[in-house]
Hints:
The structure holds two protein chains of two kinds. Chain A is an all-alpha fold. Chain A has helices at 9-19, 24-32, 39-59, 76-82, 85-124, 126-137, 144-155, 161-168, 185-210, 214-222, 227-255, 259-264, 276-285, 290-323; strands at residues 62-63, 71-72. Chain A has two domains: 22-79, no CATH class; 80-323, MetI-like (MetI-like fold, Orthogonal Bundle). Helices cover 72% and strands 1% of the residues of chain A. A two-stranded antiparallel ribbon of chain A has the order 1-2. Chain B has a domain at 96-252: MetI-like fold, CATH 1.10.3720.10. Helices cover 70% and strands 0% of the residues of chain B. Chain B starts with 25 loop residues before the first helix and ends in a 6-residue tail after the last helix. The interface between A and B is large, with 133 and 141 residues.
Amino acid sequence: xxxxxxxxxxxxxxxxxxxxxxxxxxxxxxxxxxxxxxxxxxxxxxxxxxxxxxxxxxxxxxxxxxxxxxxxxxxxxxxxxxxxxxxxxxxxxxxxxxxxxxxxxxxxxxxxxxxxxxxxxxxxxxxxxxxxxxxxxxxxxxxxxxxxxxxxxxxxxxxxxxxxxxxxxxxxxxxxxxxxxxxxxxxxxxxxxxxxxxxxxxxxxxxxxxxxxxxxxxxxxxxxxxxxxxxxxxxxxxxxxxxxxxxxxxxxxxxxxxxxxxxxxxxxxxxxxxxxxxxxxxxxxxxxxxxxxxxxxxxxxxxxxxxxxxxxxxxxxxxxxxxx
Amino acid sequence: xxxxxxxxxxxxxxxxxxxxxxxxxxxxxxxxxxxxxxxxxxxxxxxxxxxxxxxxxxxxxxxxxxxxxxxxxxxxxxxxxxxxxxxxxxxxxxxxxxxxxxxxxxxxxxxxxxxxxxxxxxxxxxxxxxxxxxxxxxxxxxxxxxxxxxxxxxxxxxxxxxxxxxxxxxxxxxxxxxxxxxxxxxxxxxxxxxxxxxxxxxxxxxxxxxxxxxxxxxxxxxxxxxxxxxxxxxxxxxxxxxxxxxxxxxxxxxxxxxxxxxxxxxxxxxxxxxxxxxxxxxxxxxxxxxxxxxxxxxxxxxx
Lengths: 324, 303
């Protein structure tokens, strides 16, 4: 059963409604009784999302240490943020995480999926391809915190594997305090995230490729197109929708990244790996500048919401074009 | 975290899943050649690099720390030593964390799936007014960064005596995840066969009977995917449990490991043992739910 295929509701429902045979009146009457089923979800949404989000916006306009009464200060927090280098650093680092969680895994994922699908599978059988795919996917099963603990151990400067191996190879001049040095900390964290994300993109893109008409590849092969020509002219154009959606969703995830930073570096050394999520968290719970943290969180929410709306519109538009 | 999230749908004309012609015939095999083997070996090398950290955690979790200090992390242990694992297990009372995680993940998955089904029933079958907007709002609830909710949730749960209790976190995570489930199920139910519903109505079935006797059995496969995903998401979740479950007796597996990463760095095999303890349940879930998970990751890919 493959009922898990969400068609965008808007177009689908409109279409069905027109063909419903029930008279308009009774249809409306019957639809009224369905509201009751929305109540639990709506109450939950109000209590867990809408009200807290409103409160967060209010906090962002106050100066508050978490105890006593918040003091209303207008847009002061936002003005202060604009002059705070840590704030700008956190959003600048977000672009590095978009690179590590979205751009690089997507590029590697498309390439690996194409090699597995259009080279390994035909030459060595699809079993070889799926074993390799499963291996690339393996890091994806880990809770992100476990991945963090594991890599923290690998990066450990005295007895960690990386430095030990470098020492064994006589390359001890390459040894670093990987997470503790502001020159390498960011790259070390990015490396972990690339390792985590590749499996996801490989699996999604291979699934995408399995839907491409094999006749396309065969025709190209008969016409003498080499592997790279097929890659550029068939694989990439055919995967374009998947690539777009994967890029957008993983970028949103990259903007929200928190757990790897918490486990690996806590934003440091200094602010060299700070990200918006961790910056607001440390304002909330470490320095208890609640209003200031709330302002960071609100700006992050605004940015993520804009990207989410772009995503929704993109999907709806695609679907409409297809329906017609 | 969202790493294992179901892939976004991508709408594209669907074709009949045509059987791919067998290209692994004799002539193709004979054309494997040196370049073919080179590429296979390169890929296998890359794959080995991907699972190398798992391997290191495995061998070092059971290595006596004296041997680690003497021979380093690469060698295979000459004797199985459970000291590090046992120290970790008892030190953090890991049984308790496992139990907490199972209770939390299980109840969040069931409650979130129920909430999703109820809301999606109203939206997809009931076709209530403004459903497109309602869905958009639900979707935003799912994408909004939890940092923008966490402090108010911290304040509210303290006022309601739900702070540092699994119940409070259960409610919050169930609502957040049901936002996604509602979106997913509503579109599945939106294309539910109308004739079936009409027939049931003509036979005098009430709305609740339609939900229980018709919609629920027919959407069970989708619900199974959702329950599995909710369970794993909750198991992996870190941020809200970290903030809302401070005391050791309420912590989940993820939170306890996250808390641990700061300490424990003097003994070289301790972190390997801790990683291993975190990897094991994840590996078990993966093997148990493999098919469901892959189907979920490929949501939209198999039409």
